[in-house]
Design goal:
- The chain is α/β, with parallel strands linked by helices.
- It has two domains: 1-296 and 392-471, Amidase signature (AS) enzymes; 300-367, no CATH class.
- Helix content is 38%, strand content 13%.
- The protein is built from 15 helices and eleven strands.
- The protein has helices spanning 5-13, 19-37, 45-60, 103-110, 153-160, 177-183, 217-227, 268-283, 299-314, 333-344, 347-360, 366-387, 412-416, 423-428, 457-465; strands spanning 40-43, 72-76, 114-119, 166-170, 186-189, 210-214, 254-258, 287-291, 392-396, 431-439, 445-452.
- The protein starts with a helix and ends in a 6-residue tail after the last helix.
């Protein structure tokens, strides 16, 4: 397994290790293993080597390259890096290259990180298994017959396989945390607005958030501190810098256990492992309190109205005119739109666009979209009441371990239920993290989801660090 990001950065900054040697080893490992995993869609070898040499020159000159000096990192292929492809896992953007850097890419480069490539994803981040990618599914390194989760499955697989110590994903309804659980890595969905979305290809603009996947909680926090903070180019960006870190363990923290997350549909083996992990936090000094989030049962329905509505609006820009795939032999403009989108988009993207367009149409807007937004407010109020009593909320990340490739592709509802425990966190705008907490009897990893109130990432990291650590 590759060193942690924190260890690499420490050794490179002190001159103990050379960034160029580290990145060379990483590129060799990717070349040897990516074919069987399909985690990377594009590897930027020359750019990464050039960046590594620049880091080594700064160190040789007595300068500090930054907190992620020499750390290889992969970015989900819906996040712009200037000059590199941004396909979003779709044929419609198969030949598209980003004309500018996203804010997170700029901050990573400034911090000395080495961007090694772009990772596979469900098309336009719409999916829970990475099987919706136009470029083939990624595979779970823990069992290559199984999915790595989605939509950030390529990023999770790359970290779990030790190809890179860090990767970025995007999380609209669980797309960082669910693959983190399936692959046995750490995955953070930051507070909505804490990380700039400038340069992220939009899916659901009121839900999307960029975050890290990592081997350790320490690495996830290190990366988050680099990419978080206000950005004037993102109108939804929260003001101010990230809050200060919190030291210590979980002693004195109150952990809420919502009864709604431990009911029908949860695999008994997953429930046992998650409850054992919560008991472990209690043994380390945390107070565990039963709570209720009564409107959680509506999260799936609310999400699959709001997210498709926002997708319908956001994806209207892909029309075959300005960029992306353009259908040939379309005499009329209306035919050009229809043919370009029909040829370029996959089945799941088309399904969600149609759902969203229907819900936004005259006569249905009030019945669906407006009502969903009202229920969303009730979901958020449940969380607000809970966080007045507890510091963090603990739940399973996913109801099962990673499922087989092809197992759920013919049943969209069963696929959507893979994210049933993660959706509400996005709807409420709070912070959430998935931390490995054990293995099921089949040897596959299980994730514990911890959620904290908006802006309370330091408390979240404090609790997450205690999961699985010795008492």
């Amino acid at each position: 397994m590759i060193e942690t990001a924190a260890a690499i950065a420490r050794r490179v900054r002190t001159g103990e290790a050379k960034a160029e040697i580290i990145i060379s080893h990483v590129l060799e490992k990717i070349a040897a293993e990516n074919e069987s995993l399909n985690a990377f869609l594009h590897v930027s070898s020359e750019e990464a080597l050039a960046a590594a040499r620049s880091v080594d020159r700064l160190v040789a000159n007595g300068e500090d390259p930054g907190p992620l000096a020499g750390v290889p990192i992969a970015l989900k292929d819906n996040i712009h890096v200037q000059g590199l492809p941004t396909t979003c896992g779709s044929k419609i953007l198969g030949d598209y290259r980003a004309p500018y850097d996203s804010t997170v890419a700029l901050r990573l480069k400034k911090a000395g990180a080495l961007i090694v490539g772009k990772t596979n994803l469900d098309e336009f981040a719409m999916g829970s298994s990475t099987e919706n990618s136009a470029f083939g599914p990624s595979r779970n390194p823990r069992d290559k017959s199984r999915v790595p989760g989605g939509s950030s499955g390529g990023s999770a697989a790359a970290v779990a396989a030790g190809l890179v110590p860090l990767a970025l994903g995007s999380d609209t309804g669980g797309s960082i945390r669910q693959p983190a659980s399936f692959c046995g890595v750490v995955g953070l969905k930051p507070t909505y607005g804490s990380v700039s979305r400038y340069g992220l290809t939009a899916f659901g603009s009121s839900l999307d958030q960029i975050g890290p996947l990592a081997q350790t909680v320490e690495d996830a926090e290190l990366c988050w501190r680099v990419i978080a903070g206000h950005d004037p180019r993102d109108s939804t960006s929260a003001p101010g810098a990230p809050p200060e870190a919190e030291e210590g363990g979980v002693a004195g923290l109150t952990v809420g256990l919502p009864e709604e997350y431990f009911q029908e549909g949860l695999d008994p083996a997953v429930e046992t492992i998650v409850r054992n992990a919560v008991e472990g936090l209690q043994k380390r000094g945390a107070n565990v309190k039963k709570i209720s989030l009564p409107h959680t049962r509506f999260s799936l329905s609310v999400y699959y109205i709001i997210a498709p509505c926002e997708a319908s609006s956001n994806l209207s820009r892909f029309d075959g005119v300005r960029f992306g795939h353009r259908a040939s032999q379309s005499a009329a403009l209306e035919s050009l739109y229809a043919n370009s989108r029909g040829e370029g988009f996959g089945a799941e993207v088309k399904r969600r666009i149609m759902l969203g367009t229907y819900a936004l149409s005259a006569g249905y807007y009030d019945a669906y979209y407006r009502k969903a937004q009202r229920v969303r407010s009730l979901i958020k109020k449940d969380f607000d009441r809970a966080f007045a009593e507890v510091d963090v909320i603990a739940t399973p990340t996913a109801p099962t371990t990673a499922f087989k490739l092809g197992e759920k592709t013919k049943d969209p509802l069963m696929m959507y239920l893979s994210d049933v425990y993660t959706l509400s966190c996005n709807l409420a705008g709070h912070a959430g993290i998935s931390v490995p907490c054990g293995n099921a009897p089949d040897g596959l990893p299980v994730g514990l989801q911890l959620m904290a109130a908006a802006g309370r990432e330091p408390t979240l990291f404090r609790a997450a660090r205690a999961v699985g650590t010795p008492s």
